User: What shape does this take?
Amino acid sequence: MQRLRKFPWRQFLKIIGVVGLIIVSNLFFQLTQNEFSFDLAFKFAFSWHTEKFFLGCFVLLIFYGWISSFLGSLKTGSIFYTLTVIGVGIANYLKMKYRMEPIYPDDLKMITEFGMIRDMVGIPLFILFILLLAVGIFLIVFSIRKSLKLEKKRQWLRVGLFVLTSGLLIYIGGFNQQGNLLRKAYNKTALWIPYSQKMNYYNTGFMGGFLYNLPVEAMEKPENYSEAAVKKVTKEYQNKTKDATDEKPNIVYVMSESFSDPGRLDGVEIFGGDPLQDYRAVANKTYSGQMLSQNYGGGTANIEFEALTGFSMELFNAQMTTPYTMLVPEFPSFPSLVGTLKGRGYETTAIHPYNTSMYKRKDVYKTFGFDKFLDESTMKHTDKIENNPYISDEAAYQEIFDQLEKNKKPQFLHLVTMQTHMPYENKYNDLPYGVQGDNSSAVRSYLQDIAYSSEALKVFLEKLDDLPERTLVVFWGDHLPGIYSDAIQEENQGHQLHETEFLMYDNRHQLNNQQVTTSPFYFAADLFQQGRLQLTGFQSLLVALQKELPAFEKGMYYQSGQWFKEARLNKQQEKIYQDYQMIQYDITAGKQYSLKEKFFE
Assistant: This one.
């Protein structure tokens, strides 16, 4: 009995409490990953993937130790740690719900995007987020000030623990580096699924999937990569374009937020009219069709990256989830359509009717070389429709006209719209369209949204016909909205949840009237070929690849009018694909030998 009394029960209970907190927090992450299914979460942790679960707990324990040592208090550290877990877990649940993909480490950089968070999650959750943030900041200030009064022995213990956990976290940050011991421990039982991050997180646990998406090289190095190999590729595709004209028409890119045709989905039948009737009136008379989007419900910046650079997300390592934040800002300049056109005497302007910090666009556009970037604070036309919180497409198109009319140089104008961005409910008083199969208020509001977008596009293109200068337009939707029911999503698994509408328009009506399926990284090459403009060597390579593989993303390959889960390439096709892979690696992770060969000019 005397021994029991002398036993350090308080310390023992603290240890038990910390271990319990770590296990519960990891279970909470699993719950958010599995739509709060306790059955799936507990089976993952204690039946199916126990080793991976406790490896995740080990990482969380180190993170907990780092927070507590930094704040100088186990109690305050526990509160701050819990708030962090709740915040990340809720964000993961919401992203899984609306975009069918989990939270990535790079997403945490968006924590200061208050306007975006408010618009995406709604006022109640945004207020909760602000409260959590405020409590967290208060805890940091309060605890650090209090920790300065700790006795010397405890201060040294605190500093030692902080240095140890900091070193361990830095080592964990190199999870994807060769020889990393934590990665080796995961590899004993983990089956990584790089082509589907959703399944990757399901299969390895939230913590395993999160670690897998820590920084990594953009691409794997091709076996034969060298300066000589790159020169061989550039020389082969540097042929001059036949029948190319020397004219410099205005070029307008319009990436329309969530613009797509719901009627293409199985199980969806629209009544009350056709919300895309104005769009079809134009598209059916020009070069148009469907575009393959990388993601469902989101991923705008990745589609924009593909369209402006000509580089495919499919070729990157799976962990390279967002080049706009993870890759492009690391370069002083980056080859893109912007640079190609500036080299030919164009003035280049980006327009985004929202704030400038989304996806680091301000930095990315500077790297691409845009002369101007107009946002919601610098645009002249900022009208909105009814209760829609975003600037309308009509106003954004008027901004384009202002640039076309006042500038004498040929113009490249790149517009990223916002009118049809989520949330969709409560935007409009009258909702004339309905859907059999998924008649939610969000879907009906979305139909009205795309009807307004469709109408604004038609009016915009008709006004272009009156311009004295030839003007070429590429219009496309970046992805489907993440609003469809689970049943509709299940019925349309695969390419159908990734196909949006696109068209190319010439105010001189000289493009082919043709319906095709394509990918956004082909847009510039396709437009130059259709418009009979001089192709760059890189665009000639893209034209050659497009003939063999008209559209592709991870797990979706369009060949000979059919969809496959894996590419089926013969030797000639494989050679072109490898040439493309070589150039993309050269620019994004290699020595950029192709720039010396003027391959993008």
